[in-house]
Write a structure and sequence with these properties.
It is built from 2 helices and 23 strands. It is mainly beta and 361 residues long.
Length: 361
Amino acid sequence: MENLTHERFLKNGEKVIQQLISDTKAKGQTTVVLTGNYLINETVILSSNTTLLLKDCHLRLADGVFCNMFRNEHCYDTENRTRENADRNIKIIGEGRAILDGGNYNGLSERNSNKDGMPSIYNNNTLLFSNVENFEIRNLKVTNQRWWALNFLFCRRGKITDIDFLADYAMVENGVRVLGLDKAKAGLVYVRNADGIDLRVGCHDIIIENITGFTGDDTVALTALPGKKALEFAVQGEPIDIYNVTIKNVMSSSFHTIVRLLNQGASKIYNILIDGVTDTSLNCEYYKGRGVACVRIGDQHLYGERNSTKDETFNIAIKNIYSRGNAAVNLVGEMTNVKCENIFGFDGCPVLINDEKAKLY
């Protein structure tokens, strides 16, 4: 990736983009074409029936700001959150060199979220969508995410395809930021929990395909955890479950797990296809050590009110897994009808399928 200095970015890019969207809508059109390199100081708001085409475009968050790069128009509407009032038909599509860049880290983390004058950690999602129907995110390079890069809550009928990640890969040792992560020193990671794609509560009927690169935590995470913050995005009449999701052709190295499924506290995960996950971490230039697993379902730690039951995690197909991690597939907890096929470990992967306190039905 080309290393561009701030001098080569036009400032206030969000104003340029918002004006382009307004001008395009005024003409009765839906496709907004953007070229060039821009610094983003405030969130770009995307309304229904908007296609943003980024042609040879590099967008970078400005230093010290606390905002998403993109958010749907009614993301934070707390009244009348219904499926009928969802934002619809929103697309961000890259063409040529299309980069969403988190820039320099701003210090906001899960530990200081909403504390000491800091805003919510959700401000550090590169993209935040909630209650969006019929969306597409395609052909983008996403770099230097300040937390989870692409975060979706109560979204449905979408495609997330051809995304390449490069998370920050620095540690801070003795006050000095040094490049190169070490699994043995995980507590020194500079940008923590730098996931790639996160489907949260209420997401369903979504395709995730052709995902590559390096992430500082899970590359693709399906986490149905109905905590207080997540439920602030709840949609009337919509279940809190994650279901009908296809994940195909993920080739990445991850500081944690490449594909992770987790549900607790009465939420469900079901009807999931994971087909084709390859761990590319051999001689990885970004970190030393093995990842946890190519695929992990469940967890021993309690993130919700209780662990899931066999009736809440079910109908999951896992196939064509190629792992260099500590395990190819890691199963924890109770689950029903989980099928594994063509599971491979190489370069010293010690375990193919690790039933870690798992009860399979």
